[in-house]
Amino acid sequence: MTEEYKTSPYRRYRNDPEAGNSTRSYDEDDDEGSGPFNIVRTKRAPVDQLRRWRQAALVLNASRRFRYTLDLKKEEERKELIAKIRMHAQVIRAAVLFQAAGKGAAGKGLSVPGSAKLPSSPTRIGDFGISAEELVKGVAEKLKSNPEIGVSGDETDLIERKNAFASNTYPRKKGRSFWRFVWEACRDTTLIILMVAAAASLALGIKTEGIKEGWYDGGSIAIAVFIVIIFTAVSDYKQSLQFQNLNEEKQNIQMEVLRGGRRVKISIFDIVVGDVIPLKIGDQVPADGLVISGHSLAIDESSMTGESKIVHKDPTRAPFLMSGCKVADGYGSMLVTSVGINTEWGLLMASISEDNGEETPLQVRLNGVATFIGMVGLVVAVAVLIILVIRFFTGNTENPDGSVQFTAGRTSVGDAIDGFVQIFTVAVTIVVVAVPEGLPLAVTLTLAYSMRKMMADKALVRRLSACETMGSATTICSDKTGTLTLNQMTVVEAYACGEKIDPPDNKSLLSPRVISLLTESIAQNTTGSVFVPEGGGALEISGSPTEKAILQWGVNLGMDFGAIRSDSVIIHAFPFNSEKKRGGVALKLSTGNRVHWKGAAEIVLASCSSYIDANDNVVQMDEDKLSHFKKAIEDMATGSLRCVAIAYRMCEKETVPASDEELDSWQIPEEDLILLAIVGIKDPCRPGVREAVQLCTNAGVKVRMVTGDNLQTAKAIALECGILGSDADATEPNLIEGKTFRNLTETQRLEAADKISVMGRSSPNDKLLLVQALRKRGHVVAVTGDGTNDAPALHEADIGLAMGIQGTEVAKESSDIIILDDNFASVVKVVRWGRSVYANIQKFIQFQLTVNVAALIINVAAAVSSGNVPLNAVQLLWVNLIMDTLGALALATEPPTDHLMRRQPVGRREPLITNIMWRNLLIQALYQVIVLLILNFRGRSILNLEHDESGHAFRVRNTLIFNAFVFCQVFNEFNARKPDEINVWKGVTKNHLFMGIVALEVVLQVMIIFFLGKFASTVRLSWQLWLVSLAIAFISWPLAAVGKLIPVPERNFGDYFTWRSRKGGKGDTASMEGSA
């Protein structure tokens, strides 16, 4: 086995001359010393860092708060289990090898362990009389399949196979039931304390006032807590179902299978025993099976064995394929023998629980915000508790009628305890309101909503964090083919016999010999196929778009695909790869051996020493003819055509290795080739791609084209797409070749990286070097990729975007988001959604902090001054429901707007709470506090209630304060929709969920005031007081509009809360987590 196969495909090209000499020696994401909540990149974050922020967070309900984060304990257990299963497989493997080696040694009379060598070629042992090739045919025959055409594909046959051999699925653990979410919601510390307090209040109330009247105080709190629990559980359950559906979508890989001789695409779950599956580089082996045929077929078995060693497979010496492994190189076909739970991979997947939890940077930062606010709320709640208790037991707290609530020696123990329980309940409820438990979960809510909507926009999110990171992207390194172009290729120009063939499939301009050689090359040097329907009809051509275009050209020239394939045997193949940009095949013919090459025109042309002229003679390539062909390539490239050259040469029989081991490492001759043809393939730009690129430019996101195509082709497409403004921009370093960039020093690369708009003839390692340089320059980089060798760049980038149609499984597994339609416009939609996630969270923060600040100040001020709080426990729980669950649903599910794409990208270290948000929330909170405290202290005279009975006047005033406060939050939800725009109603009617939630809040509030007075301690209000409530709330709209005219300073308000300290000579900044 060659050195090439001894390492993983992700590292195989590290020492390739095209890989450059750079290794990443920096860690720009090092957040050591910057506070536990400042994790700007959770992708590949160390476990210690993830554990540190969890321990630093103030949490009331850990099971709910950390539900969608990575379960560190389960992850460790999962890794241990996988290691055990892999070790089990390795032990069996080692035992078999040891036994075979021992037999070999015994047969030769040797006693030295390990000195035996396994047979290198298929042998017939004993009386079995069967070779490896016959074994595959025999198994296929037993399975009623055919290695050439597969199973019939008849529905009845497929069902029978599934019944006999099982389906290609494995049992998955059921998702959590609704009642599990109810149980988790019940585990909130404050809610448990409130339930205990409610029970105590209920017992005391029934004892002192009887069951008819005494159950209201305790019962109302218990019912309010129950409603909060149900609302929370329903919201969380619906989120979990969304994630469950998305996870199933991720695993639904589409595979090509051969059924009835026709290549069809089906789901990996629909593969059955007996199916024949074509395999190519980057594919996942979908089931256990046997190799039918293979050319340089190399499998990465690291997913099963844990070793990054590449294993060469062929039908004779190593025919067994394991499900879950990846094709690292080459191509071939396999016969499926086991599926689903009957495979090693199925057993492995069924044994481990799927933990899809993963924290996002925003989620971590919001835990910091929640912790800071919670600490403040906790201090305030303790202060309120102490003040109210002191006032109560010193006789300074009065009833609404003016009587003292507690008099030492006169008040009964039961009344004293009841009074203390009520005070304690208010203090605990303040903690419920103050600790924004729903704030970090709002990220999950908006991500779940965004992921579902992004599916409709042809983007499948594999990593949650990528969804929000995309909003911070400053540059997108995009492929050309299929992303910026349609990937619908046709041969529109051709040069053969030393001249241009017009039209390209004009057979009269080509000699029979050239046509024969061309069609042989096209049919044999391909991973595509041509299917001829039995009953006639149009031919079905499959393969990559480039292969399909060339195959179609061959068919137009009269190629009989099946006949040519059967006329010769492939001795060895060099599969096309994006490093070498060419692929070759050696054929064994009746007349001798022939080698065919196909690839990038200028690279193949450089290896040609002759060509076939118009007289059908092989002529030496002189300088004039070489210049002629180079000029033809340049002209086609300038016309945005992809140029592919086809060449061949004869190969002496004695130069072809005789043994299989030597053949594996044989390099197919690639010099002294005879040029057959150069073709120009047209791949038109996608409609709307120019507008999409312009949208990115307006949004401050630079689009860079990184392509393996000719530099001139890349330049033409870039001009057409708007990546390059004009010919004047098409100069170095804006326009650069991969080889040139790779040969720069690291310092020069860093300087050039920022300026690059187009990189042509790039290898995957050039793309990796560019990503590293851009990230080191401080960019947040999104990269598109479809090939196996794109995996390192996709892994290295902040956001890896794999192509859903042309992308290999290796590329998809290394990516964060899969673009299902391979369209650049879908990439731009992902940017919009990423920005929307960030914007929605900021809206929710502004709304929630306004409620926090107002509710805390109102209750504290009232408690300190009068010993009574205007907002009681039940009322605060209702406000908490509006603020947490309903508020998050309304604001975290706002769809993205065009306004978002007119902003610059949000820096990952920029404050979460901007000065605009501070201004908005302080104006609203201050207004609510002033108005409601005036009502609290002067409400009786303002509302003309002096002549009313004092208890009734007290309840009317408090009901008005509660009603006005709730409606202020409802009206403020509209303000929070557009923090920096005056017109807050724009597009509101299109968001049906927002309108529905606002309507629900209004209806419930009306019901509370009219029908649930006993529970909420409210009374019915007159229509005049309803108008007063609505007028107070309505003023928040014009006030917000005027407030938005106030300019804000450049320095963030949160910076004033920042303190700095020195740590080991390195500046260590710890800041208020809400603004850091």
Which structural class do the helices and strands define? alpha+beta
Secondary structure: number of strands:
28
Low-confidence stretches: 1-33, 107-126, 1059-1076
| Beta-strand content estimate | 5-15%
- Mean pLDDT across all amino acids: 82
Please work out how many helical segments DSSP would assign. Answer: 36
Large-scale geometry: elongated
Short overview:
The protein is of the alpha+beta class and 1076 residues long. Helices cover 48% and strands 15% of the residues.
Note the main attributes of this structure.
elongated, single chain, nine-stranded mixed β-sheet, disordered C terminus
What does this structure look like?
Residues 1-39 are annotated as: Disordered. It catalyses: Ca(2+)(in) + ATP + H2O = Ca(2+)(out) + ADP + phosphate + H(+). Mean pLDDT is 82; it is low at 1-33, 107-126 and 1059-1076. This protein is of the alpha+beta class. The strands form 6 sheets. Strands 10, 11, 14, 15, 16, 17, 18, 19 and 20 form a 9-stranded mixed sheet that branches. An 8-stranded mixed sheet has the order 8-26-25-24-9-21-23-22, with helices on both faces. 47% of the residues are buried. The chain is elongated. The protein has 36 helices and 28 strands. Strand 27 and strand 28 (1066-1070) form a beta hairpin. 48% of the residues lie in helices and 15% in strands.
